[in-house]
Design brief:
571 residues, 4 helices, single chain, two-stranded antiparallel ribbon
Length: 571
């Protein structure tokens, strides 16, 4: 066999071998067509390259006809099998956040059929009052309140009142000026700041002397009380998310008089109230109350208060449990603050009972406000310890509001006002302190039986008032009452009023050292108002029509019958 024949036989063998390989990959064709295509490409390229080497472009002798046959291939039979079922139970936890639907819609409008709209009341921000009277009197008062959006509100107020019966009784005259400026600044929806500035100028005269024997110029018996008040408060105007109210309230005042006596006071109050179920308050109050008085010497009176309490309210019962803990120098006092209330018949009939106590300061300011003829240099500043146990009833039927109670009070170091007489024989008063036990009966009533008529009355009666050392409770009344009636007519354009004041005589010691009791007070008065227009009106007040000249303080009689008339304005 020559070389050409050998190459041809080898080529035939190689071609048969390739066909066998092609048959073996027949099965793989369906699984991976891409790989098969690459393989065929490579196989053809190889065959072509090899043929180009062994099959030159010359004549070829065919020995045998080409018989191409594919060898039998073994196929792998694969039967598909389903995967096993998963019969385990799994709990799926779906956390879907809730979102409130913000649906905006107009509220329905209910319109009455055949009903006229009510008359809108006018709103007035300012007022003024000016009047004069007999004996010589002058009243001037004005005020204005305003607001800017929901950011700020405030008011300013001033009043001047003077009266003189100098022609009837020398130096029986006084005047008083009062002014106040307040404002609230709302920082946000929760927090607000309040500020106050006040001023008082009160002039009185010591006319308690024998006018048949002595005479004095007004300058000789003059007394001026000047007081500056500064106060602030940081508070929440609405309850917090935790149902909590709080306030920080510092107060300061400075007082001096015509005789260079001076007093300063500083009171810092911290208060917090926690509400439970919106009706049960738990309250804490801490106060530091400092007072310093200076004349020829300095007196200090400093108290610190801690006042916790909890009040439970239900439809039938009100229970308050608390205490008042007071520290003064090295003395620590504890007082109860408890009360039990029962609603026997709704709001119409309620009974209550309780116990309370306090340490009350007798400062120059408080004593001069009660008795403007005090001689402070003959007095001392002290605390009065008050223990009180009370019980009573109250109610509100709509047309009738009433309250009445009986109380047992024990006042240790109670300030009594004893008469003293200066070298000029002018009556003055000094504070003396004693322990006094009192059984007090008091009541208040408000009646609105008629649509336009309102009747008010208060009465306080000390059934007993027994000092431990002093002979009498100097300067304190046993009985006091105040009654009034107001009737509105002409659809609110006019009103008439009547009032009555009653009080028993006050015990004092006269110039001869004899105990005496002053006269009884029975003071009747009436008055009225009339509005000419929406903005202007007039008033008339007639006081003490019985010309009672009872002396509230010994040797200082009241002004008799007097009246005052004037005009009013609102804007």
């Amino acid at each position: 066999m020559d070389e050409r024949h050998s190459k041809l036989v080898f080529t035939h063998f190689l071609f048969n071998r390739q066909c066998a390989i092609l048959s073996n990959f027949n099965t793989m064709m369906t699984n991976n067509k891409s790989v098969f295509a690459v393989f065929i490409g490579l196989l053809l390229a190889t065959t072509q390259a090899f043929s180009q080497k062994i099959l030159p472009g010359e004549s070829v002798d065919v020995i045998k006809s080409f018989d191409a046959r594919l060898l039998e291939s073994s196929k792998i039979s694969v039967s598909p099998v389903l995967p096993p079922l998963d019969t385990s139970i799994k709990v799926q936890d779906y956390n879907v956040p809730t979102r409130p639907l913000n649906v905006k819609y107009d509220a329905p409008k209910l319109r009455p059929i055949g009903m006229k709209a009510g008359k809108k009341e006018d709103v007035y921000n300012g007022f003024a009052k000016l009047g004069g009277g007999v004996p010589t009197a002058l009243w001037a008062e004005a005020g204005y309140a305003g607001a800017y959006k929901e950011i700020f509100d405030g008011k300013v107020w001033f009043r001047h009142h003077q009266q003189s019966a100098d022609k009837a009784l020398e130096n029986q005259k006084f005047f008083k000026n009062e002014g106040l400026v307040t404002g609230n600044y709302y920082i946000n929806e929760q927090l607000a700041v309040e500020g106050k500035l006040g001023y008082t100028y009160d002039r009185v005269h010591f006319y308690g002397y024998d006018h048949t024997m002595d005479t004095f110029s007004a300058e000789r018996v003059r007394q001026d009380y000047k007081i500056f008040d500064f106060a602030g408060r940081l508070y929440n105007k609405e309850r917090t998310d935790a149902d909590l109210n709080f306030s920080i309230a510092p107060k300061f005042y400075f007082m001096n008089d015509f005789y260079s006596n001076k007093e300063t006071g500083f009171d810092l109050g911290l208060a917090a109230t926690k509400w439970f179920n919106e009706k049960h308050p738990l309250r804490f109050v801490i106060r530091t109350d400092f007072t310093s008085f200076n004349d020829t010497v300095t007196q200090n009176l400093n108290n610190i208060y801690l006042q916790p309490s909890f009040t439970f309210h239900s439809d039938m019962v009100k229970v308050k449990i608390g205490g008042n803990f007071v520290s003064n120098r090295d003395v620590f006092s504890v007082f109860p603050d408890v009360e039990l209330g029962l609603r026997v018949f709704g709001d119409g009939f309620q009974i209550f009972a309780g116990a309370t106590g306090d340490l009350r300061k007798n400062t120059y300011r408080s004593m001069a406000a009660y008795n403007p003829f005090i001689d402070i240099r003959s007095s001392r500043l002290r605390n009065t310890r008050l223990d009180s146990y009370y019980g009573g009833l109250k109610g509100d039927f709509g047309w009738l509001e009433y309250s009445g109670q009986v109380a047992y009070n024990k006042a240790s170091n109670l300030a009594l006002f004893q008469t003293i007489y200066t070298f000029e024989n002018i009556t003055r008063f000094r504070a003396v302190y004693d322990t006094v036990t009192m059984v007090n009966l008091q009541g208040a009533v408000k009646i609105k039986m008629l649509k336009n008529l309102v009747i008010n009355g208060t009465l306080s009666q000390n059934l007993s008032m027994d000092p431990a050392n002093e002979g009498k409770a100097w300067g304190l009344p046993k009985t006091e009452g105040n009654f009034s009636a107001l009737y509105t007519l002409l659809e609110g354009k006019a009103s008439v009023k009547a009032n009555a004041y009653i009080a028993d005589g006050i015990w004092f010691v006269d110039r001869e050292g004899i105990r005496r009791q002053g006269g009884v007070l029975f003071d009747l008065g009436f008055g009225g108002t009339y509005n000419f227009s929406k903005n202007f009106g007039a008033f008339l007040d007639v006081n003490n029509i019985l010309n009672n000249k009872r002396a509230r303080w010994a040797d200082y009689p009241m002004i008799g019958t007097n009246f005052m008339a004037g005009i009013t304005a609102r804007f």
